Amino acid sequence: MKLVHASGRLSHLGYCSNIHAGESWSAVRDNLQRYIPGIRDELVPGEEFGIGLRLSAAAVAELAHADALHEFRQFLEHNDLYVFTINGFPYGPFHGTRVKEEVYLPDWMDTERLRYTNQLADVFAALLPEGLHGTISTVPGAFKERVTTTDDVRQMADNMVRQAAHLVSIHEKTGRLISLALEPEPCCFLETIDESVDFFTRVLFGDASVALMAKLLSIDEHDALALLRRHLTLCLDLCHAAVEFEDPDECLARLDAAGITIGKLQISSGLRLTQVNAATVDRLQPFIDKVYLHQVVEHYKGELTRYTDLPEAIEHLGDSQEYREWRVHFHVPIFLEQLAEFSSTQYFVSAILNRHRQSPISEHLEVETYTWDVLPAELRTESVDQAIVREMRWVLEALS
Fold it and tell me: How far, in Å, CA of 330 to CA of 284, rounded?
């Protein structure tokens, strides 16, 4: 949906369709037809409604065909819907099977990630309304343990620059402006705001990247840098940032000072456990699942320690009776501040939305609670479409 700030600046709010299981285009299309019009009518009847579209590699390959694109454009037009952002993070299956660290593959060291993202952009250009800026969120480079050399970093950056050059070509040919948005996440190459600022300023906007962009587009380096800054942005996932114990004001200030555009705000909330010890473990069991990674960042005696998954954190905790705080990358409904004996990182979401209300942070806001089907049963007290409506209403109230 379209939100007009008091300053006159326009932003778009939607929810990410990755909450619905479906890897083929037919499954994605059926989910959109089943859920989106009803959710739109609950929230803004008679008004346009924006979609955050998730497309796997299989789905985008099917949608790339002219007939499928034509049919989907007609569906959008007849239902007053539009696509303003695409989630290009999960390449393959994302529900009902083990995802874990494989969700980052292929990563940006692999040209298959570049090919897939280019195809997403090509399809997106055929869907994006005229005059609207689009974003594609993507993996934060790679899973951290896979990046071992400076050559690995350079390979990732070169592929991202090539993607930016492809986006420039799309803009020149179609008039559709699309940016890539890298999404920092715990235990990934881009994990913290500091790491992201360093990579953008030193590598993506550095001399080697500028020279490659200039060569690819046959332009001078001043223009190349400007285009890199326009087409390579950051997706700020509020769950991820809160799990990393980021400060809301400081992370926004750091990105702004570095000239890094926040292409998309992903509005999500994670688990917050302010007092964890061995006695807490049993109550955490319902949050352990075989599908997703649930990274943990522990604050203990002034230090941060990171664990790749919840079972690993529990193992390291052992029989300790000393309290420490855990933040867990497990997306929980953003309208819940308390979850039985635990709390959520809703405070971080509220803080960022308050800043956005005062001065817009991003054109794109996307609610992304994709873990609905692995949530503990006591947190699934309503249907998925009712939960989406409730989350969206919570955001609208926070921004009003």
Answer: 11
According to the model, what pLDDT value does residue 216 have? 98
Return the structure tokens found at 205: 């906007």
* CB distance 99 to 66 below 8 Å: no
Average pLDDT of every residue of the chain: 96
pLDDT tens track for 261-310: 999 999 999 999 999 999 998 899 999 988 999 999 999 999 999 999 99
Q: Within 10 Å of residue 343's Cβ, how many Cβ atoms?
A: 17
How far is the CA of 82 from the CAs of 44, 77, 78, in angstroms?
14, 8, 10
DSSP annotation of 200 = I
Contact criterion met (CB below 8 Å) for 190 and 202: no
Q: How many angstroms separate the CA atoms of 323 and 230, rounded?
A: 45
| Predicted pLDDT at 305 | 98
pTM over 0.90? The answer is yes
pLDDT of residue 6: 82
Enter the tokens of residue 355.
């800043």
Beta bridge partners of 367: 15, 267
Q: Where are the alpha helices (DSSP H) in the chain?
A: 25-43, 57-63, 66-78, 111-127, 150-174, 193-198, 207-217, 221-231, 238-243, 248-257, 281-284, 310-317, 346-358, 384-399
